Amino acid sequence: MTSRNPLLPPLPSTSSSRPFFLPSPLEHAHTFHAHSALNAASKVTLQSAGVGLLVSAVQNALEKHDKGAMGIVTRTGGTIAFFAAMGFSFSYTQAAVANLRATDDALNSAAGGCAAGFIAGVRARSLPMAFGACAAMGTMIGTFSAAGNALTGTDRLSIPRPEREERRKAFFKQPKPVVDEAAA
């Protein structure tokens, strides 16, 4: 193994079954702390309502009408409520399932995604679409959560350069040694 920089904290040891990935913090035993479902839901509801307001403003700007700026609320205001409802249902369900199971894992996020997807399907006024959106969003958000809540994987810059180089070399196939047939 290469020498480590004494100024950086040591990296946790990786298991031999997963040589290219850092261990998840969820793998270590920890004490579960209950989540305040209404507190989390109210924060996420306000944030998602803000996103809904932005989307409603864009919809209002792109449509032709004589309502002016009030069209954000009067014509496309349902978008604000829809985003707020999806944010509330996701965060409340995620926290409630975590409290019920007394664990923090990807299944909680999958349940929240399913609830938000169901709201999206109900808005389309189709029960099959509600169940399909529940399954699709639950799967996507659960998978994202199981993968460490990041699209890019581990933070490569937090790993010392020599270890990154070792991982890079181990990832690619090693070239076969060239054998000179004339000498053999």
TrEMBL record:
A Gene Ontology BP annotation from the UniProt entry: mitochondrial electron transport, NADH to ubiquinone
Subcellular location: Mitochondrion inner membrane
Top-level lineage group: Eukaryota
Residues covered by region (Disordered): 160-184
Keywords, alphabetical: Membrane, Mitochondrion, Mitochondrion inner membrane, Transmembrane, Transmembrane helix
GO cellular component annotations of the record: mitochondrial inner membrane; respiratory chain complex I
Transmembrane segment boundaries: none
Main location: mitochondrion
Membrane-protein topology: Multi-pass membrane protein
The protein's name: Uncharacterized protein
